[in-house]
Design a protein that fits this description.
Elements: E1 2-4, E2 9-12, H1 19-26, H2 32-50, H3 65-72, H4 74-79, E3 81-84, H5 89-102, H6 107-112, H7 123-130
Parallel strand pairs: 2-3
Antiparallel strand pairs: 1-2
């Protein structure tokens, strides 16, 4: 998520939609002080939710707009332009598959996707495995607790 107080916008990063590239392009519009303040606010929110200290913001790059509203407050949130990017669901799941394939040397991915190890680690097998652990829909990053879209565009 990028929150820019100087340009009055919030960008919600939906996973597997080119969010890293978009965030890189938008980074120039936020000041370092905004980045630091956002990190502090996110840490406070997650410390309250998880009852832990020293949560690293880098571990949570894909916060929902609902979380942004809780972090910055409803008044400021409603005054900012809120947007995101979504992707065709088939392209998105294929991007997830490619991401898993690229990272199968990592023990974390091996534990998460054991069925992808071995000879038959193709897209069809990946799709079969996703039936038991579906990727959250993209809209879940953009709605509030009542299911109302929080993005302007």
């Amino acid at each position: 998520m990028i929150v820019s107080d100087s340009h009055n916008f919030i960008y919600a990063r939906v996973p597997k939609t080119g969010s890293t590239s978009i965030s890189s392009a938008l980074a120039q519009y936020r000041r370092i002080s905004e980045r630091v303040r956002c990190v502090d606010l996110v840490n406070q929110l997650f410390c309250q939710i998880l009852q832990k200290k020293n949560i690293k913001f880098s571990a949570y790059p894909h916060l929902s707009l609902h979380s942004a509203k809780q972090i910055i407050g409803a008044q400021k949130f409603n005054s900012y332009f809120r947007f995101s990017v979504v992707r065709h669901p088939v392209d998105r799941i294929y991007s997830q598959y490619r991401h898993v394939k690229r990272n199968l040397s990592c023990r974390k991915f091996q534990a998460m996707y054991p069925e992808m190890l071995g000879r038959r680690a193709d897209f069809e097998r990946f799709l079969e495995s996703m039936q038991s652990r579906p990727i959250p829909p993209q809209v879940s990053m953009l709605i509030d607790e009542h299911g109302k879209i929080q993005a302007n565009a």
